[in-house]
UniProtKB/TrEMBL annotation:
GO annotations of cellular component type: membrane
UniProt keyword terms in alphabetical order: Membrane, Transmembrane, Transmembrane helix
Transmembrane segments: 38-55, 67-87, 93-116, 123-142, 154-174, 186-206, 218-237, 249-268, 274-290
Gene name per UniProt: rhaT
Annotated PANTHER family: EAMA DOMAIN-CONTAINING PROTEIN, INNER MEMBRANE TRANSPORTER
Pfam families registered for this protein in UniProt: EamA (PF00892)
Protein name: Transporter
Membrane topology: Multi-pass membrane protein
Source organism phylogeny: Archaea, Methanobacteriati, Methanobacteriota, Stenosarchaea group, Halobacteria
Length: 311
């Protein structure tokens, strides 16, 4: 029964995170991009803070290490990632599926940054091949044309690549901080801090609430991103992270593009291109090469548990 529960939650998480790319695309018709991202995390941050007070004994940060971890989360995991992602998705040439596939490079980039910044980890030759394959996958997906780098949504896709890189770098930097802060507390305060930073950036970009169009579609898009993709999504993520571990939960990044493509097709009439499929394939192979030892270890552990259960 537990196995089916985990599988069900995994599918729900992939669905809400994958369809979030469609909701972003739809909502950008009615909101300036950075202001839209900031409003999303105004709501999600308040909800997560309430959950941190409910679920942990330490809902308030204490000491330099915890505030440093929150600052990293706010700058990289929330503000940089979402500002670049939302701006990138304003380009009509970038489909929901394409954005999701580029973001699925994040686990590959995380492994690369970890090898550079964490002394205990080093890239093997095969790992370097995996990292390069992931980068080639983004190039294929972006349909890079050296003669005209501004065509075909290339700049927008590279902005989304920058978002994935910011998230990966933030994930590694938080591991360098010696902090025992509960992850719920870290996420809540990072969301609120990131939202504040994005409001500042929004003002700097001359975005205005006067440009916001409030109607059924815009309210539904904001509510879905705040409540389903952010609040519910992270609650499921925390639960599965504890049950499945980081290797299996990383696979959400490779299932989410399927739901992004389906939701984009159903609601926005977006049709994935061959470049989207090819780029996804290269990124996924790169992930397998980088994580091959951890995956082999996880498979041996799972098979050993099943054999003992059968006996």
């Amino acid at each position: 029964m537990t196995r089916y529960r985990n599988l069900g939650l995994f599918v729900v998480l992939a669905a809400v995170w994958g369809s979030a790319f469609m909701a972003i695309k739809a909502g950008l018709e009615f909101f300036p991009p950075v202001l839209f991202a900031a409003l999303r995390y105004d709501v999600a941050g308040v909800i997560m803070l309430g959950y941190a007070f409910y679920a942990t004994d330490s809902p308030l940060p204490r000491g330099r290490a915890e505030w440093t971890e929150i600052a990293i989360g706010a700058v990289f995991l929330i503000a940089s990632y979402h500002a670049l992602l939302f701006i990138g998705e304003t380009d009509p040439a970038v489909t929901s599926a394409a954005a999701a596939v580029i973001v699925s490079l994040s686990p590959v980039l995380t492994s690369g940054f970890a090898r550079l910044l964490l002394p205990s980890e080093r890239l093997t030759p095969l790992g370097i091949v995996g990292l390069l394959l992931g980068l080639v996958g983004v190039a294929v997906l972006s349909e890079l044309d050296p003669s005209n780098l501004l065509a075909g949504g290339t700049v927008a896709k590279l902005l989304i690549f920058g978002a994935a890189a910011a998230f990966a770098l933030g994930s590694v930097l938080t591991r360098r901080v010696d902090s025992d802060m509960p992850i719920e507390t870290m996420e809540a305060w990072s969301m609120l801090g990131g939202a504040l930073l994005m409001h500042v950036v929004s003002v700097g970009l001359n975005e205005s609430f006067a440009d916001v169009v409030l109607n059924t579609e815009s309210i539904v898009a904001l509510a879905y991103l705040s409540l389903a993709a952010s609040a519910l999504g992270f609650l499921i993520y925390f639960d599965l992270l504890a049950r499945l571990g980081p290797i299996e939960i990383n696979l959400v990044s490779y299932v989410a593009p399927v739901f992004a493509a389906l939701s984009g097709w159903v609601f926005l009439n977006e049709v994935p291109t061959s470049a989207t499929v090819g780029g996804f394939g290269l990124i996924f192979i790169g992930f397998i090469l980088l994580k091959r030892r951890a995956i082999q270890s996880e498979l041996r552990y799972r098979l050993g548990n099943e054999a003992r259960t059968t006996d």
